[in-house]
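Format notes (please read before filing issues)

Several people have asked whether sequences and structure tokens are stored in separate files. They are not. Every record keeps both together, in the order shown below: the sequence lines, then the token lines. Line labels are part of the format and must not be stripped during preprocessing.
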Amino acid sequence: MAKAKTPSAADPSSAPNVAPEASPPESELLREPAELKYRRELEALRQNEADQAPAAWKLSPRSVLTYITGAKKPLKAKIDGKEVEVAITRKFFGDDSIVERSIVTLASERALLLVGDPGTGKSWLSEHLAAAISGTSLLTIQGTAGTTEEQIKYSWNIARIIAEGPKPENMIQSPCMLAMRAGKIFRFEEITRCVGDVQDALVSICSDKTIAVPELPDDPMVFARPGFNIIATANARDQGVNELSAALKRRFNYIHIPVVSDQKTEVEIVRTRSAELLERYKIPGRIEEPVLKLLTTVFREMRQGATGEGLSVQKPTTTLSTAEAIGVALDAAIHSRYFGTGTVGPEDIARNLIGSIVKEDLADLKVLKEYMSLVAKKRAASDPAWKLFHDAAVKVLSA
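Then the structure lines:
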């Protein structure tokens, strides 16, 4: 059995680089992690908790679901010494059953794999699940072709090893090992970008909930505490690049996140996320509803290869995700703020559209031109907003 250890800097329960309260002040952060940005909501849910939470979970499964999908009414809570009402906002705009199944998986011993096209909100959902369940979303690694097994398990401080030999205090623990010791959620982003040998380092972690440390014969095993689990994400377009082994697949519960196809939902996502980003970058104002509808219409029609009138159009090779639409909305707002009138119009959308559609394949430029010629031009004859959009797009495309 592993020997009991006193808390140390390597233990997430006391480590300053893991505990949210030890993070820099929010004003100093370009992007706050979910547990900081939504601290008031998480605390309000905790104070109003009416159900029992699984071992080491900060909230019950029902409260985790409410945190991610939102509440109809504000919750009363005592925040920073004051009695306030806290609105629980919606974080994930997809099917609620996706969130429910994700929570159920994490409450079991099986790991969770979120699969979907780029920009469908896999990492966003992963972050919020970890924040609500563990109180931190920071125990994460980004999978790449250069990710090594040591980054998943542990490595050593070489200088101290040479001077003192292998000791527990000379170990550099991975986020995964830290999560195991603290009973928290470990996030593995883009798992299929890693080579198979590196992926298989997770097999024993998923099944036995242990990491072997043969360099420490007196204490050779690290055991996971209750509450530990893994959320991995994988892009559907990367399937087959470094496909998971059969052994690893069996240890994950797959949940596929589809591309948003409903325009009303997509408009809501773009409106909410762009408003948050505008606030972060201190850009005044907001993007009006007709402009948001025009933007999401262009993305949806080019993504599906068909217009609302039933006309077939070419699809670009680029994934026209909702995340890309949010990026266009933000760029348009920044452009309007510094180089325009300050009010985001259809022409601002058109000026910033090309960079999201035409990426590595210049043939997509022809696809965009065709859409402007066959679709936008026709609508411009009767709709002033589409005329502004069409005229600005043509000017950019002909430059």
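For reference, the curators noted about this record: The chain has a mean pLDDT of 90. DSSP finds 18 helices and eleven strands in the chain.
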